[in-house]
Amino acid sequence: MKFKLTAILLVFTIGWATAQQKKWTLEECVLYAVENNLTVEQFELDLENVMIDEKDALGDLLPNLNASTSASSNTGFSINPTNNLPTNSTAFNVNAGFSSNVVLYNGLQNIKRLNRAKMAAISSQYRLDNLKDDIQLNVANAYLQIVSNKEALKVSRAQYAVTEQDLKRTKELVESGVVPKGDLLEIEATAANQEQQIVNNESLVLISRINLAQLLQITDYENFDVSEETFNIPLSDVLNNSPKTIFAKALEFRNDIKFSKANVELAEKDLEIAKGAFAPTLTGFFQYGTRYSDVTQIPDANGIAYTPSFKDQLWIFDGISYGAQLSIPIFNGWSTRNSVNRSKISLEKFRLQFEQDKLDLETTINQAYVDVTTFYKAYEAAEKTLEARRLAYEYARERFEVGLMNSFDYSQAQARVDNAEAEVVRSKYAYIFRLKILEFYFGIPITLE
């Protein structure tokens, strides 16, 4: 029994440790964010409401059916329900029946409301999908920020390791009298600055991890982390397409454009519904009723009056009525006309918004295209600068070690290398993110493969 308990605890501990050590990939972060975002859940509830509205619109096309019954007792003066004559007695009466009404024609408003409800469901789905698109971009940006900060941290630690070696060699040079002791102090100051930079980069990594965890709505910040990967510049053919080509393709699948267009179509349907109120309304109706009264007197075959039973009276006094009713609108204080005019204004506003959304998309794509080109050039320039700074640093080291350069100039050469390496990391991930944005507008899913 003790062995079994130990085994269970061991399995639980291993499972808990594995869960704590989980490293999230970008794809996992995106999927988790979409599935657990509170705004997404709210939009999904809105979509469910719209689906109910569609059922309401369908129900308006069907006839209704209502049943009614009443029981009453009268004492004193009343009207006998069987002969409609006044009486002064105690009577017990029961009335029952059911009725049905159906709109046969009302300017096709019910059919148009059903079509609008179906369109509203599609529009709500576009709205939800557009939110998920935005979440994917935000998560990708936050994820790449963590990776960028981690790589910057690695660089700063590597720089500090080099400085430690320089510090060791400088001590030897000072002891041998090659360089003055003041040069050692300068190297020690450089090492202290690099230690501070390591602390700053560690803070940036932690803050960026917290930011992504908050996007994913994960509260265990301390144990949340992304996979340890260093991403190279990805290969992409998206730049082989012009901004106009990317924009034309984005118009076909972007959910924000589909949502904006759906709003125009909904406004058009609202205008049709408003105009339908000018048409006459034709309603069909059917009613069935029966009654019972304990004061009912009818003659039998011999002409003798008697009170039929409850069951017999329900059959004797039942009856139906049916027909149609036509209502023609003539004047209602310009309410219908005003409603039509409001619908026209709303339609025009949604049309203008649709055109504005297309212009905004085109501007965004053009800016993203320029950003990709600019940041790639900046990355290439940063790489060349880093290479030159490293060569200059090696040359400075050789001169410093033989006493031909003072510690201040040597530390400046090293600082320029540090800055160049940091700029390479920054421009690299700035380029990767903007490339992923442009690919996303071209219909390519966000991945870091």
UniProtKB/TrEMBL annotation:
The keyword Transcription does not apply. Keywords: Cell outer membrane, Membrane, Signal, Transmembrane, Transmembrane beta strand, Transport. Its main location: membrane. It is found in: Cell outer membrane. InterPro entries: OMP_efflux, TolC-like. The keyword Translocase does not apply. Pfam families: OEP (PF02321). Residues 1-19 form the signal peptide. It comes from the Bacteria. PANTHER family: OUTER MEMBRANE PROTEIN TOLC (PTHR30026). Belongs to the outer membrane factor (OMF) (TC 1.B.17) family. This is TolC family protein.
